[in-house]
Amino acid sequence: MRITSTIAAFTIAGAVSVFAQGQGPAPAPPSSPPPSPPPAAAQAPKSTLTGCVMQAKTTDGGTAYVLSKAEGGSASMYVLGGPSQSDFSTNVNKKVEVTGPVQEPTAPSTSDSKVLRPPLISVESVKVVAPSCS
């Protein structure tokens, strides 16, 4: 079980690192105001997704949050963004329901088919649905 968790953590961290590199600067620390959603995300229809909040480190040492084991959307993992950054940190390893517009990833600049680029959800609301992900 521990090996599987470690492999999953490295996979998520690698995916978030690749996504973060392709998306520009890493998310700002929680003490600064959160970035506003990209214009494309603001125009996208809202989605409601359920999954587990996980914390990952980016290659530049920043922190990113992802929704893993996601249900209700087209992907199994989403990068969490938007003004709810403090909600993400307090809900790590909890099952949550998030609502907001989803931005599909842009095409990778390289033709590497092994690069995972999860969609970004600009979270507008967070609701805890279970105290743990198990």
What does this structure look like?
With 134 residues, this protein is α+β, with helices and mostly antiparallel strands. The chain has one domain (2-130): Beta Barrel (OB fold (Dihydrolipoamide Acetyltransferase, E2P)). The chain has helices at residues 2-23, 39-43, 85-90, and strands at residues 46-57, 63-71, 78-81, 95-103, 120-122, 125-130. A five-stranded mixed beta barrel has the order 1-2-3-5-4. β1 and β2 (63-71) form a beta hairpin. The model is unreliable at 1-11 and 24-34 (pLDDT under 50).
Spell out the key features of this protein.
five-stranded mixed beta barrel; 32% strand; OB fold (Dihydrolipoamide Acetyltransferase, E2P); alpha+beta; disordered N terminus; 134 residues; globular
What's the short story on this structure?
This protein is 25% helix and 32% strand. It is α+β, with helices and mostly antiparallel strands.
**Element-level helix/strand string:** HHEEEHEEE
Helix-and-strand structural type: alpha+beta
The N- and C-terminal alpha carbons lie at a distance of 13 Å
Oligomer: single chain
Number of domains: 1
The helix count comes to 3
User: What is the CATH class name?
Assistant: Mainly Beta
Write the layout of secondary structure elements.
Blueprint: H1 2-23, H2 39-43, E1 46-57, E2 63-71, E3 78-81, H3 85-90, E4 95-103, E5 120-122, E6 125-130
Parallel strand pairs: 3-5
Antiparallel strand pairs: 1-2, 1-4, 2-3, 4-5, 4-6
